[in-house]
Amino acid sequence: MISFSSFYQQIADSNLQHWLEELPAILGKWQREHKHGNLPKWEKVLNKLHYPAPTTIDLFNGVQIGDGSQLTTGQAEKLKNLLGLFQPWRKGPFQIHGINIDTEWRSDWKWDRVKEHISPLENRTVLDVGCGSGYHMWRMLGAGAKRVVGIDPSPLFLCQFEAVKRLAGNEHPVHLLPLGIEELPPLDAFDTVFSMGVLYHRRSPIDHLLQLRDQLRMGGELVLETLVIDGDENAVLVPEDRYGKMNNVWFLPSVDALMLWLKKCDFTDIRCVDVDITSMAEQRSTQWMKNESLVDYLDPNDVSLTVEGYPAPKRATIIAIKNQPNHDLV
């Protein structure tokens, strides 16, 4: 069974220590509810990942763990087969002992668009909301973060993360907890909070922004990336049914509308640092993710539209600072 005890030990003497009052019970409930399904099978695969500690790790230029020189051909083939049991791999890529896990998303491209605009992460405590398998968490650690915590409720993403962490040596201060942000108490503790590719999946985007705010210390930085549309501060797309074949897309605001939402949620220094149309080179099917991908979500006769006729995916990155609430006195 996946254990969270090392995380509890690490935060016991940190500014996250008050989380221990609730976290063990929350995660204990999660473990009891996931005794069935695929999690036990994936945990058995994790227990087979006994490989030499890597002599080289590069988290600055990518996520590269080992260079392949430590494994025999047979060992490398066995490792590749084991990692293949965790498909589909959506966020990455990862290079592990010479094996290239070519994920659906080129998440390194997103990181390259973001990294030059954020406050330096050296010695920061960072939260990554909706972290997937944890690719960006490793890049945050490579950028000097003191501790990185990711949350994502998917058991598969947890197991993918645990596989990478065990192969990397396990001692790194990066942890994934299988939780949604609504399960977190207000911690007011993180220096930087990332929410990338999450907002449009939330039924109440304002509540999501307030939940992100509750995790930041005063003066902490929010890095928010989400789907947007063109338009003024009143422009918001609410898909009638599906968007890009996804049935869990609720609100796609314009950049100006999103910045107004952040202002109403007591953020300041709000700025849009990037707007990018998602390309079929950045999101595609691979040998590690064989399901449908972006090309299948777009109108084959007009790739500027989704198959439903909505504007094709465009993503904006907004950076904002948690400010002291400034509500009018009644």
Automatic annotation (TrEMBL):
Top EC class, one word: transferase
EC number in record: 2.5.1.-
Reactions accelerated catalytically: carboxy-S-adenosyl-L-methionine + 5-hydroxyuridine(34) in tRNA = 5-carboxymethoxyuridine(34) in tRNA + S-adenosyl-L-homocysteine + H(+)
Statement: the UniProt record of this protein carries the keyword Nuclease: no
Assigned keywords, A-Z: Transferase, tRNA processing
Pfam families tied to this protein: Methyltransf_9 (PF08003)
UniProt-listed InterPro entries: CmoB, Mo5U34_MeTrfas-like, SAM-dependent_MTases_sf
Annotated residues for binding of carboxy-S-adenosyl-L-methionine: K91, W105, K110, G130, D152, P153, S154, I181, E182, M196, Y200, R315
Superkingdom in the source lineage: Bacteria
Subunit structure: Homotetramer.
Biological role stated in the UniProt entry: Catalyzes carboxymethyl transfer from carboxy-S-adenosyl-L-methionine (Cx-SAM) to 5-hydroxyuridine (ho5U) to form 5-carboxymethoxyuridine (cmo5U) at position 34 in tRNAs.
Record family assignment: Belongs to the class I-like SAM-binding methyltransferase superfamily. CmoB family.
Protein name: tRNA U34 carboxymethyltransferase
Organism: Shewanella japonica
